[in-house]
Amino acid sequence: MNSTIYTTPPSHPSSLFPNITLCKTIKHFKQVHAHMIKTAQIHDPLAAAEVLRFCALPNNRDIHYARKVFDQMRQPNCFSWNTIIRALAESNDDGKPLAALLFFFQMVCDASVEPNQFTFPSVLKACAQSSRLKEGMQVHGLVVKYGLDSDEFVVSNLVRMYVMCGVMKDAHLLFIRNLIEFDEGDEVVRNHKKKEEGNVVLWNVMVDGYVRLGEFGAARELFDSMPQRTAVSWNVLISGYAQNGLFKEAIEMFREMQMGDVCPNYVTLVSVLPAISRFGALELGKWVHLYAEKNGIEIDDVLGSALVDMYSKCGSIEKALQVFERLPRKNAITWSTIIGGLAMHGRANDALDYFSMMERSGVTPSDVTYIGVLSACSHAGLVDKGRSFFSHMVKAVGFEPRIEHYGCMVDLLGRAGHLEEAEELILNMPIKPDDVIWKALLGACKIHGNIEMGRRVAEVLMDMVPHDSGSYVALSNMYASSGNWEAVADVRLMMKEMDIRKDPGCSWIELDGEIHEFLVDDDSHSRAKEIHSMLDEIANQLRLIGYRPDTSKVLLNLDEEEKESALQYHSEKIAVAFGLICTSPHTPLWVVKNLRICEDCHSSMKLISKIYKRKIIIRDRKRFHHFEHGFCSCKDYW
DNA sequence: GTAGGGTTAG
């Protein structure tokens, strides 16, 4: 018995069978199992339990195998039943939660076993996952019948079941009742503390419920009234905000947590990073990275992906690459993130190189990976490459293209000037086109000055999303650039009649960890006066080197002088002016803008980067522009 | 045996 798996001393009964937990691979495990069957050791209930436990473990879960082992047991005990139910309930596959429930009801009918306090959490989880209120309530009845309605694990899962089924009233009732019961008759402080800790799970489940329902007010109110909070309490809100687009709230919550006495943990960082990314708050993102390193929080593929995404979206693609390279494990999401990041920065060739590296490393690209690849081709105008990746994905790989893939293709073809082909693709694709895809085509019409198609597309859009200002603005701009001021006036009148306002342009710049927000023509900042004189100085400098603003893209039909000043105060210019005032020479400036950068701002930024010898990195709603020495990384193709 | 997590067309 020299083999490493026969390590348990033979005196102990469980050591009569090899130590399953030492199996490194499924193959190894199956060999050991076969050996146990051959030697009849499998009839030892403990041995069988060990086998069952192994194939139900989250990492090597094989439910079919586990079921077979279970079915061959002479007398499965409560533990055996629980193992199968838990494995089924925890699996996210369709139908598995239902299977868990059916299996549980079978268990209840079986006279030889009785469900215990370990059975119900899994069963309730299965009800919660599949939103089966009716079954959940039946299970609740059984909980009471078996006298388990004061077990804290059972209770929190009961509350969670009601929460997930959207019955907050019942959840709340159960929550309140159990809080009171926990507090009754507490004489020993230690005991009380333990119960408070039990309570915090209940509170968290409730806050999570309101977050899931999108009732952030109620969630926040409950959170604020919690007697004590754990990291999970904070994480529920931070991730809830971030996943629902409330990035500002997520970041504010995170900042508040930083100041309190509960330390952010792994999940906190993973949850807050997407919000930091969307906001482009590089300084905060760096803090998170450093925090993980200092506090021994493992940067695995999940946290790593979030960090890579943060660095790319905050403009620091080099840092993103650095984090990526250092990751010990990279999965499809990690690769998709870096490929998408490179695409966003216009580094199409690098993106495609990474795609080949991904394939060589043995990680299978997902459909999301192809979105990054196609978007790289589209940002760099690689029409043929894009076409061939698309058909490869469909024909060789067999992925059904999603609207995002078609979106990339429409953008790729349209921007390269193949407007008809792009339009045909939209009309012939098997998915219903959405506003985003039409907007991509509209943008292409604008670039190539195809007013006829532009009008047609804009009409589709006005029908589809009547209150979205985008199509009106694009149409108006198209007329304006062709000098058709009458048509511009018509569009403007239509907008006025329908009370449609142009989305205000908005830019952010983060200085010393503080985010400064500027709107178009914004003069509300405390240092507005200085900003204005800086803007004037910039305008003068630009004029001195012979720059004449491109006024053709302004929405209004103003006289030349007025138009020039309307351009001058686009939010990104204000943010850059502010950045120039507040930072020392040569410091790069990072600005994030909610809309696309306009042509005039784009030309001005190139010159500003030259005049002031600054690297200016602007993230618009679609991609990055790195301005340096008078040039932009997008090579004026965007 | 409880609560919280990363990528996705413009």
From TrEMBL:
Organism: Lithocarpus litseifolius
Gene Ontology molecular function: mRNA binding; zinc ion binding
Name used for this protein in its record: DYW domain-containing protein
The PPR repeat ranges on this chain: 199-229, 230-264, 331-365, 366-401
PROSITE patterns reported in the protein's UniProt record: PPR
Ranges of residues in domain DYW: 546-638
GO BP annotations listed: RNA modification
Pfam families: DYW_deaminase (PF14432), E_motif (PF20431), PPR (PF01535), PPR_2 (PF13041)
Keyword presence, Iron-sulfur: no
Family (UniProt): Belongs to the PPR family. PCMP-H subfamily.
Coiled coil: none
Keywords associated with the record: Repeat
